[in-house]
Amino acid sequence: MIIREATLSEVPTITDIYNEVLLTTNAIYRENKVNLADRINWFNQRVDLGFPVIVAEANGEVVGYGAFNEFRFGEGYNGTIEHSLHVKSTHRGNGVGSAILDELIKIAKVQRRKIMVAGIDSENLGSIRFHKKFGFIETARMPGVAIKHEKKLTLVLMQKDLAR
């Protein structure tokens, strides 16, 4: 498996992975699929601001991706970022997510970021355990902050101190 910077030509595959996760899980608090133009805009915004978009490639196929961007607006938050990563359902549990998150953490440290935040649905216990393995700690639970398919969802915020 290779972890590397994503290219614009891979945004259609990133879009497919995103939509698969969106439609089959509560990992993304949206209900409707996104189109390619949306993901191209997403990609360009991150790259233009110096934030990474990386992919995991296995046997010549992009099987997952990760990115991070600012956590909140304002220079006081410059050291804090929020990441996202998604893996094709057929490749979950094979170390793809770990390889992506490991690389995102390395990039964040090179960029001298201080804190990395993860926003996770409270029912996604696998993702919570996954982040704990990387040293993330739970810092907040926000009940009912989102609704998907008419169900109130609880957002768990976890963070990692990148100096450790």
Describe what you observe in this structure.
With 164 residues, this protein is of the alpha+beta class. It has a domain at 2-114: Aminopeptidase. The protein is built from four helices and seven strands. It is globular. The mean pLDDT is 96.
What does this entry show, briefly?
The chain has 164 residues and is α+β, with helices and mostly antiparallel strands.
Mean pLDDT score: 96
Low-confidence stretches: none
Order of adjacent strands in the largest pleated sheet = 1-2-3-4-5-7-6
**Helix/strand order:** EHHEEEHEHEE
**CATH overall fold name of the domain at 2-114:** Aminopeptidase
CATH class of the domain at 2-114: Alpha Beta
Approximate shape: globular
* SS field, number of helical segments: 4
Query: What is the CATH homology-level superfamily of the domain at 2-114?
Result: Gcn5-related N-acetyltransferase (GNAT)
Q: End-to-end span in angstroms?
A: 26 Å
Give the amount of beta strand, in percent.
Answer: 35-45%
Structural class comes to alpha+beta
The number of distinct β-strands equals: 7
Instruction: Label the CATH architecture of the domain at 2-114.
Output: 3-Layer(aba) Sandwich
| Biggest sheet features | 7 strands, mixed
Helix content: 25-40%
Radius of gyration: 15 Å
